[in-house]
Amino acid sequence: MMGVARRHVVCAMSGGVDSAVAALLLRRRAGYDVTGVFMNNWDMVDEKGICQGNQDSEDAYKVCQMLNIPFRQVSYVKEYWNEVFSYLLNEYEVGRTPNPDIICNKYIKFNYFLHYAMDNLGADAIATGHYARTSLEDNEVFQQKYARRPPGLFRNRFEVRNTVKLLQGADHSKDQTFFLSQISQEALHKTIFPLGDLTKDFVKKIAAEHQLHHVLKKKESMGLCFVGKRDFSEFLLEYLEPRPGNFVSIEDGKVIGTHRGCFLYTFGQKAKLKDCRNAWFVVDKNIASGELFVAPCRDHPALYRDLLRTSRVHWIAEEPPAELVRDKMMECNFRFQHLMALAPCTLTLNQDGSVWLTLAKPMRDLTAGQFAVFYKGDECLGSGMILRLGPSVFTLQQGKKRESTAMNMPADEVTVQPTK
């Protein structure tokens, strides 16, 4: 009697506890052959600072040794530079604040790594340590046919396919669907998330029980994807030329300090002012003039907005959702930062596939360059990059004050400005 065919799963290893436990859980499943792969995506030769890449690789190798599974390394230095890091620098130069981790997942982990695992290692599926789930059971993942899709802007709306939904992890406090909101159906069809139904505490317990102490004691990775934690302003200045400008008070237009470049600041960030006792916070930018507008408190109305426009939205399962196509509007929830509370909003579909997003109430720190990620219940619908912001509450208040002043002025005191 012939034995049941074994399934080959290639697990992305980061050198952290989550990917280690993901590989462990796969290794313990009957009929699975597991290979661990560490991705090297940053050229250490170019570094002036300290990067954890070498240590992470050693930790991942040690996990594979302990689990008695093959270990591989693959380099995507060029791909990371072209697809992720160049994008990051370009976004900062035009005044936006990018999210490279979302782009890294889209182009590196769930594109180049996926194809490497399938084409070079003969994988039946890939796996990562993300806290996320899909609508497929593991055995259904193995049944999905693997074929590279030709590059194109649109999916065929009439194509018959088994659409896979991306669902939040059971541990909502660790859910990572935010970072996966740009990945393709092709990737979701062939991906397993072993930690999707687990809590972080339980994952740590599993690691401790299996003596994976060298990864368990490591701190959570909080830095730029693959580059690590560092003084980010100084890191950027290694690649971008300083563009000095002024800090300007949003309230009275007075110059209160200078800075080395608008790209070093994002909305809501504390301004570095030498001669000010009180803290000031960045609320707006004028890239052309190099001015950073600041306000004297963290909750200033200049930081609150209720309207934004995205780039063309990447819809994960349904492109676009039928409700949005039918009604041109759709209510859902969104976030633009990982693990921030979901906020109710209304989407209005534009002809180019972008959306206008209107919030039920103004939100602080909405930032161009970040991704607006959309949810309905536990399902992550997809995301679009924030390209434009509506007027701030402060701007609207100032407009109302001017209107009120003009209405209360005697008619002979109202000055009409000549048109040019």
TrEMBL record:
First and last residue of the signal peptide: none
Mind telling me which GO cellular component terms the entry cites? mitochondrion
The record's keywords, sorted A to Z, are: ATP-binding, Disulfide bond, Mitochondrion, Nucleotide-binding, RNA-binding, Transferase, tRNA processing, tRNA-binding
Localization? Mitochondrion
Predominant localisation class? mitochondrion
EC number(s) recorded for this UniProt protein: 2.8.1.14
Show the GO MF annotations.
ATP binding; tRNA binding; tRNA-5-taurinomethyluridine 2-sulfurtransferase
Transmembrane stretches in the record are none
One GO term (biological process): tRNA wobble position uridine thiolation
Reaction(s) catalysed by this chain's protein: 5-taurinomethyluridine(34) in tRNA + S-sulfanyl-L-cysteinyl-[protein] + AH2 + ATP = 5-taurinomethyl-2-thiouridine(34) in tRNA + L-cysteinyl-[protein] + A + AMP + diphosphate + H(+)
The residue ranges of the tRNA-specific 2-thiouridylase MnmA-like C-terminal domain are 306-386
In terms of domain of life, where is this protein from?
Answer: Eukaryota
Pfam families of this UniProt entry? tRNA_Me_trans, tRNA_Me_trans_C, tRNA_Me_trans_M
**Residues covered by the tRNA-specific 2-thiouridylase MnmA-like central domain:** 234-295
Say what the protein does: Catalyzes the 2-thiolation of uridine at the wobble position (U34) of mitochondrial tRNA(Lys), tRNA(Glu) and tRNA(Gln). Required for the formation of 5-taurinomethyl-2-thiouridine (tm5s2U) of mitochondrial tRNA(Lys), tRNA(Glu), and tRNA(Gln) at the wobble position. ATP is required to activate the C2 atom of the wobble base.
User: What family is it from?
Assistant: Belongs to the MnmA/TRMU family.
UniProt-recorded name of the protein: Mitochondrial tRNA-specific 2-thiouridylase 1
Q: Which organism is it from?
A: Python bivittatus
